[in-house]
Amino acid sequence: MQRDVMQPLRKKSRQSVIVLGGHRSGTSAFMGALYRLGVHIGSRYIIDHYENSAVVDLNEELLRNLDSTWDDTFPLPVNWWQQGRLDDHRGKSLRTIAKEFGQSMLWGLKDPRMCLLLPFWLPLLDKVNATPVFILPLRDPFEIAASHQKRDNFGLEKSIMLWMKYFFSAEFHSRGYARHFCYFDDLLQTPIHTLSELGRHLGVTFCRPIDQSMDLLDEFLQPSKKHHSHLLATELERLPQSFVALYRHLFVKKKPLFYDQHDHLLFDTCRSQFEKDQRFFLNTTDRSNWVNLTKRNARLIKAMIEHGGHMIQEKRHDDAIAVFRRLIDIAPERYEFWNNLGVAYEVRGALDEALKCFNRAADMESGYTLAQENIERVKQRLNLTVIQPEQTRPSMLYLGLVQGEGYGWGVCSRYLIQELSKIRPAAALNPNEQSNENQFLPGTLFQALINVDFDPMFPKARGERNFGYTFFENELTERSKKNARQYDLVLGGSGWCRERMLEKGISNCAVLIQGIDPELFYPIQEDAEADRFVIFSGGKFELRKGQDLVLRAVKIMQDKHPDVWLVNCWYNLWPASTRLMRYSPHIRFEHHENETWRETMLRTYAENGLESRRIITHELLPQARQRDLFAQTDIGLFPNRCEGGTNLVLMEYMACAKPVIVSNTSGHKDVVTERNAMLLNRLRPFNIADAKGALIGRWQEPSLDEIVAQLEYAYHHRAELKQYGRQAGEDLKQFTWGHSTRKLLEIIES
User: Fold this and answer.
1) Given this model, what pLDDT does residue 388 score?
2) Residues 661-718: pLDDT tens digits?
């Protein structure tokens, strides 16, 4: 289902305020306060909970369709919201929205399950012409656990894992929308100030003025509403590291106002670790609690089996073993569980343990042919193991990479870890477990080089063989040259990087091109809306990526053509690089510390004479939503001055068979040709110097006149653009993460 990127501007007068918080996190207090300020919550709302019972029923039904429940700590299926079998449920949900909220201009949704099911609801809100804004309540999870213990008899570990699952889903899927993180304690203690800040930040004008609703709010939001207080923080010592890091960030380093600028990196790291920490939950929850849980939720067994299989596919063998051991702990009489445990041991390489499990399954059920087949296979492997020399097995590949979302290195690392783990034994190093002592790894180490000096991501780690991976745009240094000698090879993210390394005298270098995910980015067949000409621009907002040229060119095009629009995804996690835009020769730019990203962009448009009504500004969008955004645009504009890599956003846009106008320079040259892109060939030197006048970067700037000329051609020849797009979609099929992984292994093994 595609998402209409025009909705935020076209329908902005109608808003849906959605409270995204897990169970027992204070969501009722927030929605109750909004209700007293005139936010419509429908006719079938539950007294004291302020949630619409029709919406709750829909969400419970949706979770049942996904073989899950609200208290299931296991993840939902990948991209579950794209399933065609949910079409009937979509229709039912649309009818419910129409019946409950009609044409209300300001209405609210509150159900903790929305945290998990938000990807399902977002396209529906578009269809009913409502712009969603989000409130994410932050209540101390130890207080939440105390509440769960009293109401649901949940142990601490289960409550913590449940809170993390809800928080990570809500935070990730609400990125790119107007949202406000708000502490539950602040709402109770200073409701007027808290709600005023909330309304200001979200751009919500309440039907009843806050200052005239003080009595209503004070009566409703009494501190006595808080029924459970903080437990001892000594519990932190026995909880997963992903929770500890997140807890300290949210509740120890508490900020008066909580925005997105510096937090996505930590959230992504914690979320990645959280998936591994599910093993912790399986190992620490007592058996009686699990037995009671499975009696209440028969689908949990199926979810656990699927989860264990998923862990095997991801080569997370210890996690898979933990899952199947827990299943046996619950039901030791189930012979298929013993067989599953045997499979987990076998793929891990523990053949003796695998054989014991398969024999146990066969003894319990004599007609279980699958166990008999597994026994024969493992016996053969054990015989071969005696003959096969140990040294012929692939050595462990250690990966000094840190996964993340919303920035190139994080995405690149995530896919390389994922793909490499499918092919050979591999282990990603944990950035939270770095020691002050040197660490020798018995295998090959492939790690990121984090700056132009080629300093490694894990400076204390060394393998038997060592490979570095770098993306750089500035001048290499003598330190770069010295550090390069510490590696068997330094792999650059583009041919341009390799040329610069050779120029510096670094001969032990090669090229590793990044890839695209063909399951997320594949040719789009539908045309964008014919009544608009929509230009797309992506990449973090900074001088190097040339968004100043985009704004200047769009200004010229908008002055001539009333149907020209710009859609951008320019959110920058690093304010220091954003500030460099003040040196642009093409636009005026100032960085104000206290502004939100959207406020900064709107001010920049106004200061440069652009019509902001025809510019749609997105923040960080999850990868799964980007293709739908691309589908609503006509052409991508990438006038980047320098790319040390091949520009991941450019590659993903081209993989969707969309035409691009692109600077024919640096890393771009590895993926663009005259057949698959409209090239910007008129380039001039654009050198960067430091405060002392020393050269730190040699870039190339495309001609503004050529950019406008190419846009004009595209505007008047839209049918001809399709050929560029078709060729781009075909060419990018060779640039997948699977291809990148195989190339890396070829380099390492040669």
Assistant:
1) 43
2) 999 999 999 999 999 999 999 999 999 998 888 999 999 999 999 999 999 999 999 9
CATH of the domain at 322: 1.25.40.10
Whether 224 and 342 share a structural domain: no
Q: Which of 343, 342, 337, 345 is nearest to 318 (CA)?
A: 345
272 in any annotated domain = no
Cα angle for residues 367, 370, 372 (degrees, 5° grid)? 70
Cβ pair 39, 17 in contact under 8 A: yes
- Which residues, listed in sequence order, are joined to residue 400 by a DSSP beta bridge? 447
Domain match, 250 and 185 both: yes
Rounded percentage of the chain residues whose pLDDT exceeds 70:
86
pLDDT digits (tens, 9 = 90+) for 357-410: 999 998 888 777 888 888 988 888 787 654 444 444 567 899 999 887 767 888
The answer to whether residues 554 and 610 touch, using CB atoms and an 8 Å cutoff, is yes
pLDDT in tens, 189-201: 888 888 998 998 8
Three-state secondary structure along 282-294?
HHHCCHHHHHHHH
Distances (CA, A) of 272 to 233, 265, 309, 734: 24, 11, 18, 28
**242 and 325 within one domain:** no
Q: Domain limits at 122? A: 14-69+78-260
Cα–Cα dist 197/199, whole Å: 5
Same domain, 198 and 326: no
